């Protein structure tokens, strides 16, 4: 007899509260971390806060809408969304169309003020596609054609992201895809083989270019070049250490004043540690653990394979990206350039992340 979990018409309140708390904390930290730079460059200390607030409002509206749209409707939209994501990833690589910054082409400019990061759209599009596609083919999952197509789709998305170049996001894409594939019913032996191949390819990709190899060497010994390649790693560690148990106070941190290269994006967790201390960083870790738990719970209680796989993909995405970002700041893994979900500055990341949570809430209803 198949055990059926009763459906509910209410939303997962703990998940909603966690995401709201992370988003509000993110707005406060973006303002604190970016204010001095915005004042210096743009003569408006609230510039980045205003931008992030606008994206947060759009994202919350999208989350509400997504939470009310039955996730089964994405079966008809999955292929067009994936095709759109691939098109955007190709366009961002075209000179004159993609916006380059820091040596990477990761953005498309829409008008004078709006920038979109296609990789964020691609992550959600891939989750919806794999969730709906594998959810309808679980019985045939172990056949070679299904596995080959899964590998091809994942490789296209991860490959396009990789050549931007954005190794961190490419890793997240692969981890999410493998997570969905495993939950869909893959044999442990096959899953292990695919994971080993993925790790090998990503490792080779990380070492094939000199600057990535330099990042690895810097991770192993940042003090060998404290004013050069190891500067960001060391300053991030200083930020965590300077905060002590309870921090120097919101807005009173020192590392954002020209020390951290990316205080309101990649390194915002270091600023958070500087200003809110160990208590603040642990609170953020707990919030993400609760988010992961509620996501896993929704996946387990989903009424069909499609819902379970979509919930799995969204949960693995948000949880793994959060872990990597915090681990980078703590010098547990090499630098990747990943943002901290809901907290780092970045409109595309925040908006798409909130919409993804809306879909997760719908699966859990």
Summarize the structure.
The chain has 365 residues and is mainly alpha-helical.
Indicate the topology.
Layout: H1 13-42, H2 47-68, H3 74-91, E1 98-101, E2 104-110, E3 114-116, H4 118-135, H5 144-162, H6 167-183, H7 188-208, H8 210-220, H9 231-242, H10 268-301, H11 305-329, H12 347-363
Antiparallel strand pairs: 1-2, 2-3
Helix pairs in contact: 1-2, 1-10, 1-12, 2-12, 3-4, 3-5, 4-5, 4-6, 4-11, 4-12, 5-6, 6-7, 6-11, 9-10, 10-11, 11-12
How would you describe this protein?
- By secondary structure, this protein is mainly alpha-helical.
- It has one domain (24-363).
- Helix content is 67%, strand content 4%.
- It contains twelve helices and three strands; from the N terminus they run H-H-H-E-E-E-H-H-H-H-H-H-H-H-H.
- A hairpin with a 2-residue loop joins strand 1 and strand 2 (104-110).
- Helix 10 runs antiparallel to helix 11 (305-329).
- The radius of gyration is 20 Å and the shape is globular.
Report the portion of residues in β strands. Answer: under 5%
Helical coverage, percent range: 55-70%
The gross shape turns out to be globular
SSE order, one letter for each helix or strand: HHHEEEHHHHHHHHH
Query: Major sheet: order of its strands?
Result: 1-2-3
Largest sheet: 3 strands, antiparallel
Termini distance? 23 Å
Question: What is the total domain count?
Answer: 1
What is the CA-based Rg, rounded? Answer: 20 Å
Count of DSSP-assigned helices: 12
Helix vs. strand class:
mainly alpha
Quote the average pLDDT.
90
């Amino acid at each position: 007899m198949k055990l059926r979990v009763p459906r509910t018409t209410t939303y997962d309140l703990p998940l909603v509260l966690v995401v709201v708390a992370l988003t509000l904390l993110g707005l406060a930290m973006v303002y604190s971390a970016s204010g001095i730079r915005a004042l210096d460059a743009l003569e408006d200390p609230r510039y980045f806060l205003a931008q992030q607030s606008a994206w947060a409002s759009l994202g919350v509206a999208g989350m509400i809408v997504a939470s009310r749209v039955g996730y089964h409707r994405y079966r008809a939209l999955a292929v067009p969304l994936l095709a759109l994501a691939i098109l955007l990833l190709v366009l961002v690589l075209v000179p004159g169309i993609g916006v380059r910054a820091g040596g990477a082409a990761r953005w498309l400019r829409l008008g004078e003020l709006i920038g979109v990061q296609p990789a964020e759209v691609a992550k959600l599009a891939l989750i919806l596609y794999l969730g709906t596609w594998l959810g309808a083919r679980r019985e045939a999952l172990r056949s070679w054609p299904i596995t080959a197509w899964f590998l091809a789709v994942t490789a296209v998305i991860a490959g396009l992201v990789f050549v931007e170049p954005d190794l961190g996001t490419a890793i997240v894409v692969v981890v999410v895809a493998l997570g969905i594939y495993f939950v869909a019913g893959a044999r442990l032996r096959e899953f292990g083989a695919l994971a080993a191949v993925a790790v090998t390819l990503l490792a080779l990709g990380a070492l094939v270019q000199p600057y990535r190899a330099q990042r690895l060497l810097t991770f192993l010994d940042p003090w060998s070049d404290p004013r050069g390649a190891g500067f960001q790693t060391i300053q991030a560690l200083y930020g965590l250490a300077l905060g002590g148990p309870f921090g120097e106070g919101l807005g009173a941190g020192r590392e954002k004043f020209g020390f951290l290269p990316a205080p309101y994006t990649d390194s915002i967790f270091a600023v958070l540690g500087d200003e809110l201390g160990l208590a603040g960083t642990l609170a953020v870790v707990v919030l993400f653990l609760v988010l992961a738990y509620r996501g896993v719970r929704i996946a387990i209680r989903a009424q069909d394979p499609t819902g379970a796989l979509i919930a799995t993909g969204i949960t693995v995405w948000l949880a793994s990206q959060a872990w990597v970002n915090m681990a980078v700041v703590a010098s547990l893994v090499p630098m990747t350039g990943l943002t901290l979900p809901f907290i780092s500055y970045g409109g595309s990341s925040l908006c798409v992340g909130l919409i993804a949570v809306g879909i997760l809430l719908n699966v859990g209803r």
